[in-house]
Amino acid sequence: METLGITRFEDLVAHLDGLTDAAWGASLDSEAVAFVAAVRRRLVRIHNYLTDRPHDTEPETVPREKAITDLGDLIEQFGQISEAARGAGLSTTVTHYLHTARLRLRFTLSGQGGRRIINRNERTGEAHLRWDQGQMTAEVVDSSASGFGVVSKNPVPEDAVVEVTTEEEGSRRCYGCVVVFCEQQPFDYHIGLEIFAYKQ
To answer: Where are the domains of the chain?
Structure first.
């Protein structure tokens, strides 16, 4: 398996930075490029969480120069980076998140599927959210194997890593999540939480 010279997390980020720069330069669909940039930001936050670094620590990297021709090329090169990271033996949490992002890029942004790769189900209940700058209780409004939708009286910063604890079928479960959106509504905030780790 080709590793593209990736031996450290910083190498992975350098490839993603180069891919994003090339995609912007090629004037590709802004939603697709913004998606790749968001994956890069969230991977850094997850890596910082896993390695006990401050949440806003940025890796010292130089973007790897790349050339992009179209959306299909972007998806192909993103897939190559994902496979290379897995072959290089990086954290399984990081590589699994990258693999899931690859599926989203392929099936949602390329028009090969719907907006979600996993259907969400309506549900009710409470979830306790804790992150490096606070904690709160929120109401769960939907869930799937990949994440939760919750509403709360208070916002949580987008891209923040949050530990989410829920009561499910009589047992307590804890997840590592990243905030993918936090939208203000008339009386509360709707927060999207993407699972990257099952803690118990």
So the answer is: 9-109, 121-198
Cα 50 from Cα 93, distance rounded (Å): 9
Is the model's pTM score more than 0.70? yes
Please state at what angle helix 30-50 crosses helix 92-104, rounded to 10 degrees: 170
CATH architecture, range 121-198: Beta Barrel (2.40)
> So what's the pLDDT on residue 109?
67
DSSP 4-35: TT--SHHHHHHHHHHHHHHHHHTT--HHHHHH
pLDDT in tens, 12-43: 999 999 999 999 999 888 888 999 999 999 99
Rounded-to-integer distance, Cα 64 and Cα 132, Å: 31
